Amino acid sequence: MFLQYKFPIEPSRAQHARLASILQLQRNLYNDALQNRRTAFQRGVHLTYEDDTKSLPAYRMANRQHTALPWGINNWTLRCVDTAMAKYRDRLRANPNAGFPRFRSEDRWRSFGVHGVRGCVIADGYLTVDGIVGKLRMRMHRPLPADARLTRLTFTRRARQWHVAILVDCKVGDQEHKKPGSACGLDLGIEQLASLSDGSLFDDTPRKTTQSSALRRAYRALARCQKDSRRRKKLRERQDRASQRVINLRSTRLHQISAAITNRFETIVVEDLALKQFPRPTRTRRPSDGAGAIATRENGQVLAEPRPKRLLEMIRYKAEKAGGKVVVVDPRHITQTCNACGSPTSESNDADRHICACGADVPRGTNNAINILARGLSAHAAALGRRVGKVLSNASV
Ligand SMILES: [Zn+2]
């Protein structure tokens, strides 16, 4: 399976400059390739990733700074262009007036990557990649798996701090789960992030923390200062660091929840999120936050990230790693059924607790989770029955 490990790196001053210059070169390549696609698109020609790679040698000859870099870096950037164009074509299908992908300014270009890592060595906490920079010191807070095969590197700069994300392909042993035979139903929601069928509830990060207050203050200060001033640039960096701290806090919480669930249960039954309707997170805009503060892109992203989906992704790979599995069931009528007596409930969906005439009184999430588990187990039993039935019919012949 593929796993991604992300480590902070501590570049020297020269390496810092080198990484920044590569980032800049890749941004130029992205914008040039996008321009190329755009002109072709307007003439009615659909270029592909392969067309882009074919014209890459000529581009590298014309822009000599690129020739020192490995090809894998340019390929990574061209893949980004290809993805952006694919998404654009999807948008066009839904809306004929959809906007063309953005050209990237410095503020909107944070990463470059290397596809197909050759000549890359990780030893003693140092990363060496041919043609990029010499030995880069990483803060490796956990070891890579012993049999890991490096597949892709992505370097990202956020708030003056560089990170490297290492995608590895490794074998997950067919080990048994620590608690074989254990199963739970899991209900994912916005208000209550995760509810289990055994009654445990997991909250999201509290909305108001020291970090989120700092972020709000940073945005307020940013909204007040003059455009294009040096102070604004400085405050922008402060806001960037504050955003990053909030993002880290929130993702840590998701990792903790998903690890707790996958360690305790072998089989985890969830609803099919593609079929489930979530209420859209409401963005409140208060006048005290400064004009336009909450509406800015990054802040909106921090607050309105689709959390249940992200949590489920983490649960999937952690379950696979721990020897467990995730079972997906149809979400229809899950919320409208009482877990104890099976009768349909008439309550509105936003009631906190599920209270039934039969005497059941549990949090709504728990009721859903128990129903999800029951549905998962009956589907499993039906599948087993079909298999047994097949074996029997074969035997009778
Ligand atoms: Zn009931």
TrEMBL record:
Limits of the Cas12f1-like TNB domain: 310-372
This protein's record includes keyword Iron-sulfur: no
GO MF term set: DNA binding
Keywords: DNA recombination, DNA-binding, Transposition
Pfam families: Cas12f1-like_TNB, OrfB_IS605
GO terms classed as biological process: DNA recombination; transposition
Residues of the Probable transposase IS891/IS1136/IS1341 domain: 171-276
Annotated family: In the C-terminal section; belongs to the transposase 35 family. In the N-terminal section; belongs to the transposase 2 family.
Descriptive protein name: Transposase
Organism: Sphingobium limneticum
Lineage of the organism: Bacteria, Pseudomonadati, Pseudomonadota, Alphaproteobacteria, Sphingomonadales
